[in-house]
Structure formats: structure tokens, C-alpha cells
């Protein structure tokens, strides 16, 4: 078995971007940039007010002395002219600073009497001006190649003043769930020998959240001939095939043999992690095949750790960018770990990070509450409430 870090390094080397396409800005959310995004102009393009108030030449203002209000400056409708001696201009947030002004006095310090305005003490020393180019300048890189267009990043993308963006192509994914005991949800209650097939629904949701297109989702019985047909159909339709189950050491574990006719090259198999030891990765030409464990919790944990980075890499994103672990304090103790690196499901509560009580690989109920994974190195001692542990979003 190899380590988690070794497996991720092999995955990074095996997966290449699918290429790029140009999309309208309104269709770019969630996608990965295929090139640096630079600004077309300065922001702001002129000195503008950071507050509602009055634009003045500050060295000509005496507290309590009246100034004539020469006009006003609104966003998109600047004051036409310059400020003269004894004058002020009513100004609003985001509006262009009139020529001759070097300060905006907040309206809270102003007393208006018709066309005259007086100011009280306490308005300095801040000038309340956003200077031209203070946010960014023309040609500045606002977003780097490979950046994901998250909601905040979409603001920066729009600020670049581009109608279209070059982004990575969306991967096409085919999902194959295996197991004679599995049936479609809604039918399992008819027999005590069957159970709902659940993992593919979570995996498909993860794929769509990563902007991948799920082109097929099938269930195959543990029969080599049937699985070989599904494998051929999936490879013909998709860039990435995800196989759930059938990857242990039993007589009916056919996940890898189902691709034998396609001369699949195995990148790795069996990782020293818990849950998820049976995870494997293969290549059929330029197409990628990822094998996940059959137990639902194991499938979802390993999908988070391997499928999500894989889909990012296929779109030109960063594998490491999808695996940013951060320390958080525990609000409840965790037990010592065994010989494999362990990923515990946990919930962020008002009290802090709490591992869910049922950590079995087949447990499905706790998944809905689990929003973090705790990464525990092999052979770790027990940890107490207040201790920092390495975590990642789940």
C-alpha cells in the first residue's frame, strides 16, 4: 500500500487538463480559468468619494465658517467644473471627486442651510477618498490561471471588464455502481436481501458541484460480462469513469477486470488510509478511471479526497488547491489511530469541531451532519477537546 500523499502525487501526474473553451461571463461561475485574467483599466478610474458628504479643499475649510454649495457629484454624473474659494460640492459614495478637492467631509459633520454648509470639529484626519488605481491598475492580474470562479472571484472577474472568459472544458463523467444486493431507491423495501444504491447519488452531486457533466449513471450486477459492457459504454461516453464498489479481494470483485479488454494502465491501488484502502486509479488512453469503495461513507470520503481534485485537474485547476487542510480545535476527544492514516467525519457545532459518533464505513445517517474531515496520521495518540487537528471541508 502507498500513502495518501503518494497517491495524490501520482494522481497529479496522471491527470491532464481537457482543454479550454470560451464562455460568457454569466455562464462562468464555478469554472476554472485557463489563463491569467488581467484588468482592462484602472479601478477606480478616477479619484472617488468613499463617503456621502461634501468635497472640499481641506486647507481652505474653517470649522463653523460657511461654504457655498456649488453643486453635486453623483455616481455616473460628476460635478462639471472645479471647486473655487469658499465652495464645497455635495458628493455621494462612489462619485468622482471634483477638480480642486482633496477631501470629503462626512455629512455627519455638516449643517446645511440652503446653499450654505458649515462643518463642526472632529471630521479629520481621514480624507475619505478612493484614489484612482488604488484597487488595481490596467494590466494587473486579478485572477491567476487555474483559479476557480467562486462567487467572490466572479466579482473580480467582472471587474476585469471582460464579456467572455476562457475556462477549462467540463469533464464528462460516467458512474458505475456495482453490487448484486443494490437496487434503485424506492425498491429496496420489497426484500430483506436488498438495499438502496445510495453512493452514486452522492458522487453525482459532487461531480455536478465541480461543474462536471454526469453523462451516465448505471448499476451493474457482479457479473463480468455485464460490467464489461457498462465499462465499454462508459469509456465511449465520458472523460472520467467512476466505479463504486467491487475493488476488494473477493471472488466477485470485478471493478478492475471489467476494463481488462481496454488495456487499462493502473496508476495506483490500495492506499494506507481509513476509510478507503481499496481506492484505485487507472488510465485508458487519455481517459481516467477512478475506483471507489462500495460502502457509502467510504465512497463519499474518498470521492472528496480523490475525485474532487481529479475533476479540478481535468479543468485546469490545482489538485493541491482542492486539498487545503487547516487546523481547528476539537470540541470533543478522538481516539488514537491504528496503522493507517485516518479520516474522521466531523460536524462544526456552536461548541466547536465534534467527530460524529458512528465512524463505520457503511454508516449513512451521520453523513448529512458531517461537514469536515479530520485527518489523523497513522499511529496518532488520542486527542482531547481543545487540541488542534488537521481538517478539510467535506
TrEMBL record:
Names of the cofactor(s): Mg(2+)
InterPro entries: MoaB/Mog-like_dom_sf (IPR036425), MoaB/Mog_dom (IPR001453), MoeA-like (IPR038987), MoeA_C_domain_IV (IPR005111), MoeA_C_domain_IV_sf (IPR036688), MoeA_linker/N (IPR005110), MoeA_linker/N_sf (IPR036135)
Sorted UniProt keywords: Magnesium, Metal-binding, Molybdenum, Molybdenum cofactor biosynthesis, Transferase
Pathway(s) annotated for this protein in UniProt: Cofactor biosynthesis; molybdopterin biosynthesis
Reaction equations catalysed: adenylyl-molybdopterin + molybdate = Mo-molybdopterin + AMP + H(+)
Known EC number: 2.10.1.1
All residue ranges annotated as the MoaB/Mog domain in the record: 174-313
Role of this protein: Catalyzes the insertion of molybdate into adenylated molybdopterin with the concomitant release of AMP.
Family listed: Belongs to the MoeA family.
UniProt name for this protein: Molybdopterin molybdenumtransferase
Species assigned in the record: Qipengyuania xiapuensis
